[in-house]
Write a structure and sequence with these properties.
The protein has 245 residues and is an alpha+beta fold. The protein has 7 helices and 15 strands. Strands 1-2-3-7-6 form a 5-stranded antiparallel sheet. The protein has a 5-stranded antiparallel sheet with strand order 11-10-9-12-15. The protein has a 3-stranded antiparallel sheet with strand order 8-13-14, covered by helices on one side. Guanosine-5'-monophosphate binds next to β9, α3, β12 and β15.
Length: 245
């Protein structure tokens, strides 16, 4: 059965509070949401959309595993545990609608924006902020924009950058030990009391990972570049298998 109907079951027991392109958020209890991972995959700000059977399970498991890895490095995330194989129990954050991207190696949108070469290594890594706004194609933000729009103060933005660097140190080295190179990744943050905590997901939908040596693509760029859905599914499955073994 397709992942889109699986949420119906949760919907009879819990109130749906938000639905995005690949996830649904339900109210679980006073302090927790349920984060349900759908089988959908999208690109081009939702312009292209497909269903990959089982992707929701793979992404929920991938995200849970990587959140636990970060927690073990002392980095706070919203992850609490699993409700079922494709649904995470997470702490209620007040999400900030900003995508924070860290880049180790040049690819994707930055290569179109700046006079740099594909594959160039950034040392130190480059960190960028984008407004979550499909209709405007997620515009790039600077500190003044974020301050003016009430997203992050400059001080908060600097704290977020520090967390991004710590996440990168943990993730980059872990993935390298699995024969994988972390090109870039995107995280989202939310407020819990006066703290900023990592929310959303860490999956191949939101990071770029290449095999060390061959530079074979494992991430959503496969889908963006038009690979068939079975190739994408097998790659997501291979990634989960490699990081958990
Ligand atoms: P780029 O800016 O090069 O398109 O993306 C940089 C990184 O952030 C990539 O790993 C990409 O997957 C991730 N990313 C950028 N925008 C989005 C988005 O709207 N959704 C998701 N899931 N990931 C994104």
């Amino acid at each position: 059965m397709g992942g889109e109907n699986r949420g119906v079951d949760l919907g009879t027991r819990f109130v749906k509070v938000a639905e995005g392109k690949t996830k649904v958020v339900y109210d679980y209890d006073a302090d927790h949401y349920l984060l349900y991972f759908k089988d959908t995959i999208t690109a081009g700000d939702g312009a292209r959309r497909d269903v990959i059977e089982g992707k929701g399970v793979i992404n929920a498991q991938t995200s849970a595993f990587l959140f636990k890895l970060l927690e073990s490095s002392g980095i706070e995330t919203h992850y609490v545990g699993m409700y079922d194989e494709r649904t995470m129990i997470v702490r209620k954050l007040r999400m900030v609608p900003v995508e924070v991207v860290l880049r180790n190696i040049a690819t994707g949108s930055i290569v179109k924006r700046l006079p740099i070469r594909e594959g160039e290594r950034f040392d130190p890594p480059i960190i960028e902020f984008f407004l979550k706004d499909d209709a405007r194609h997620d515009p790039l933000l600077n500190y003044s924009h974020m301050e003016y729009l009430g997203l992050f103060t400059r001080r908060e933005a600097e704290q977020v950058e520090e967390v991004m660097r710590r996440v990168n140190d943990a993730l980059y080295n872990f993935l390298l030990s699995k024969g994988l190179i972390l090109y870039d990744f995107k995280l989202e943050f939310g407020r819990l009391g006066d703290r900023l905590v990592i929310g959303d997901e860490i999956t191949l939908d939101a990071m770029r990972v290449r095999e060390n040596g061959t530079l074979r693509i494992l991430d959503k760029d496969l889908y963006r570049k038009g690979a068939d859905l079975e190739t994408v599914r097998r790659s997501y499955e291979e990634f989960l298998r490699r990081i958990t073994s």
